[in-house]
Amino acid sequence: MKKIILFLVLATLCIPSLVKAQEAKEIDYSADRNIQDEKYPGAFVLSKVENQVYFKHEGIEVWCDLAIHYKEENFFRAFGNVRMQQGDTVKLNSSYAEYNGNSQFAFASGDVVMKRPQTTLESDSLFFDRLKQQAYYRSGGKVIDTGGVITSNIGRYYMEQDKYSFVSDVVLTNPEYVINSEQLDFYGKTGHAYLYGPSTIESETSTVYCERGFYDTRGDTGYFVKNSRIDYNNRTVKGDSLYFNRNTNFASATNNIRVIDTINKSVVTGHYAEVFRDKDSVFITKRAVAASVQDNDSLFIHGDTIMITGKPEKRIIRGFYDVRLFKSDMSGKSDSVHINQETGLTKMINLNSGPVSSVDKKRSPVLWSGLSQMTGDTIHLQSNTKTEQLDSMRVFNNAFLIQKDTIEGYNQVKGMDLVGLFEDNELYQVDINKNTETLYYSRNNDQELIGINKTLSSSIKILFENREIQDIYYYQNVDGNLTPEEDFPLNVRELIGFNWRGDERLLSKEDLFKGKPEPELVKIEGIALPEEEGEFFDERDEGDEMLLNDKSRLKPEDLQNKVKDSIPQLKESPQIIKEKSEEAKKTVKDSISKKVPTPLIKPENSQKDNKNEAEDDEGN
């Protein structure tokens, strides 16, 4: 038993050493020239003659013109035409690089270019953690993809996910649009971009704003949530969520929608909308309401569905099914409505083309102005396009005017057609033609009832004052008389076709939805916040091995998390590299003449396999 315990203790003590030994596999290398230089104690100076200096370690290969290799510390610095390659998926070029075999951490600077199958990253400096399989820059960088070019101050690349995370002054530039964002996560394989924080997508024809969104840079479609909106030349679309297709110039919005017409001063609201930019049209449903300004007063139109089509100067508004209108001095209902903003003509239409039944009476157009109710098969309202005030109205077929008497009963006028005239948006005259019939409660100046007048004639003119009937004039073939109230039977006090609908009258904007259930809103499928990945430079305990090496040209504070900065650029200029290379060649010649052997280590799959590629680089 004691032997077993002793074995376990020794094994426990040895395992970390074994693991460390495995992690610290020695870097293999080969070089045409290999010398020791007193300027670099404990290092070999490796240089190119015909073939570049070559390193290999744990699946990564490095080529360069000149290197300082600290063999005991498993660390090297590489100069001139540096190339790193990890498998077939990561290729990195730079002027300068460092690599620590113990931590598998690399640093590159000077015209850094990292290529992946779908993307190319360019920066002045780049950190590469091979254990995490992550690359990082914080001094400005650029990623080139088929969907555009992305620049940012800070960038982090996750190789296993093929994902870039850009932060601070992020700009994606495409020939068709430009994206600006606080943070943009981009997936190289798919071209999908996720936007976080205030973000815009601007093009010649539209601007999208959101504070959380998704955009397919290759398919040119997007989905946006949180304070999202789309601005067109003359229209703004807002909603809890927006879908956008640049290829078809189509957008849709869901829940709490506002479509604002900036030219015609109108707003359409609802809970689902579709916008077709090329046709300059909007389709909106689910509690749809169109509101426009007329003579400093708002006209509200509600229907199951509202469609707005045409250019601003020729815009048409259509409402379908149980349409309701409300204005401070007027309200109405109809099956559908058609508004031509160019001509100022509003048509209230009954979609039922058959005979009017008792049920269909509720669907026929009705208009209330003051105490007056007007109905008919079709009602037209004509506005002055300049003053935006009502000029006239016309009721076609089965025109019926009813005004509730101030005390009792209903004043009634019916005929084939009705024409109403307005002044300052007040109805002041009504003319009814063809087979007219009236039933009127006649009163004296003290509002005492004199009698009930029932009259037939060819046409009638009615004058209003303060929205009440003041005078009635009968023309041609007049047949009627004034009958005392007590002598006028109750069962004939309503003309044929009488249909008082005062209980349907809209008294406020809220009555637009009276009797209608609240719509069931679609649950918005949101976009999750980015995952917390932790800092690129992990907090390291005192005594932990350095990510690079104390021979690195970077200071320990350079390997700490910080905001945007500028990594010190390569001090060794190409001329100095050339001089060092020439100096190395001369030293080797001297060594050969003195018959001093030059150390050389040949790894497996050595430089011979890469000779042609190295020669190409040397030629460049």
UniProtKB/TrEMBL annotation:
<feature type="compositionally biased region" description="Basic and acidic residues">
    <location>
        <begin position="577"/>
        <end position="593"/>
    </location>
</feature>
<feature type="compositionally biased region" description="Basic and acidic residues">
    <location>
        <begin position="548"/>
        <end position="565"/>
    </location>
</feature>
<feature type="region of interest" description="Disordered">
    <location>
        <begin position="539"/>
        <end position="620"/>
    </location>
</feature>
<feature type="domain" description="Organic solvent tolerance-like N-terminal">
    <location>
        <begin position="48"/>
        <end position="182"/>
    </location>
</feature>
<feature type="signal peptide">
    <location>
        <begin position="1"/>
        <end position="21"/>
    </location>
</feature>
<protein>
    <submittedName>
        <fullName>OstA-like protein</fullName>
    </submittedName>
</protein>
<dbReference type="InterPro" id="IPR005653">
    <property type="entry name" value="OstA-like_N"/>
</dbReference>
<keyword id="KW-0732">Signal</keyword>
<dbReference type="Pfam" id="PF13100">
    <property type="entry name" value="OstA_2"/>
</dbReference>
